[in-house]
Design a protein that fits this description.
Distance between the termini: 53 Å
Largest sheet: 24 strands, parallel
Number of strands: 36
CATH superfamily of the largest domain: Single-stranded right-handed beta-helix, Pectin lyase-like
Oligomer: single chain
Number of helices: 2
Length: 334
């Protein structure tokens, strides 16, 4: 590959001989980062590198041959604090599993425009943790966090706190708590991801202007759970076979201005559940041209959920529409 003259590339090779493991052959990746000038692209060859590491200046770390960064159970594997930094092409593993440390495979703290692209993330508490990390790109990563743990002891796949303008697309996420958890994080896009085998596929809390486009959310306890949020757009999602303790395709609580179109909501316990949504005078929750098929109950609404339905298809549900009371809603919310 021929790099532009403006890009300085440093090739670091650290191939581990077959059958040999151990820290004695590890590379000091933090020292490489420390010595690199801002703006440099570091091409890191396949091998084993010990973490944790901190990227505190605008660097691009590009892995070749799937180099491994192992956090050795000590906090986060990679912490990024520099605007415009990026990491791609790595296997990231071995964060701490102590919730009090809020550890992650990649933790972004106060840095804008960070890119986390095409990494493989395993054996970590949280996959990607965005804290005040506006305009982040999290794309085409494979996350399989903690298949060995019960769901309530896992962290989230992508966790955004007070982050806006993020693009969270084309990720494959398995064995997490929530695949995507957005808390106080408005104006984000979640598109073309696959999430399965966790608690909630997408969980929104106090987060408005969020777009959910063409995601596949399957075999979780619930597909989408949105609470105290507003101006949500859901188009072309396939939400199937969510049959755990919650067992809901889409659950809304205290949501204003939600528009859902062309979603496939199939084989869940409840296809759609609504409470106090919309909650404000003049607000709306509109479902148009969605398919509710093969659910035990297609749609369950509390009396305070005056949703608007138009051109939807209800097919082969055990019961198409059901009214519910507070006791059932409390059970669903756990």
């Amino acid at each position: 590959m021929r790099w532009p003259l403006a890009v300085v590339a440093l090739l670091i090779t650290g191939l581990l001989p077959e059958g040999v493991q151990g820290a004695n052959l590890s590379q000091d990746l933090q020292a490489i980062i420390d010595s690199a000038p801002p703006g440099q692209t570091l091409i890191i060859g396949g091998g084993y590198y010990t973490g944790p590491i901190v990227i505190y200046k605008p660097l691009a770390l590009v892995g070749r041959g799937w180099p491994i960064i192992d956090g050795q159970g000590r906090g986060s594997v990679v912490t990024i604090t520099a605007d415009g930094a990026s990491i791609s092409g790595f296997v990231l593993k071995g964060s701490s599993f102590s919730p009090s440390l809020e550890p992650a495979a990649v933790k972004v703290e106060g840095a804008k425009g960070v890119s986390i692209v095409e990494n493989r993330i395993v054996n970590s508490f949280v996959g990607v943790y965005l804290i005040d990390a506006d305009y982040a790109e999290v794309r085409a990563n494979q996350l399989d966090l903690a298949p060995h743990l019960p769901v309530l002891r896992r962290g989230h796949g992508v966790y955004a706190w007070e982050t806006s303008g993020a693009t969270l697309v084309e990720n494959d996420i398995r064995h997490t708590a929530d695949g995507f958890y957005l808390d106080h994080s408005p104006d984000n896009v979640i598109a073309r991801n696959s999430v399965r085998s966790g608690r909630y596929g997408v969980h929104l809390m106090y987060s408005g202007d969020v777009e959910l486009i063409e995601n596949q959310l399957a075999q979780d306890m619930a597909g989408v759970v949105a609470m105290f949020s507003h101006r949500l757009l859901m188009v072309g999602n396939r939400i199937t076979n969510n049959r755990g303790a919650t067992g809901v395709g889409i659950l809304l609580k205290d949501v204003d201005y939600m528009y859902a179109e062309a979603n496939y909501i199939e084989e869940n316990v409840f296809g759609f559940v609504g409470e106090n949504s919309p909650q404000s005078a003049g607000a709306s929750v509109l479902l148009r041209r969605n398919l509710f098929a093969g659910n035990d109950v297609g749609m369950a609404l509390m009396p305070n959920a005056p949703v608007t339905l138009t051109e939807n298809t209800f097919w082969d549900n055990g019961q198409h529409l059901q009214g519910i009371g507070p006791s059932i809603m409390m059970r669903l919310l756990g």
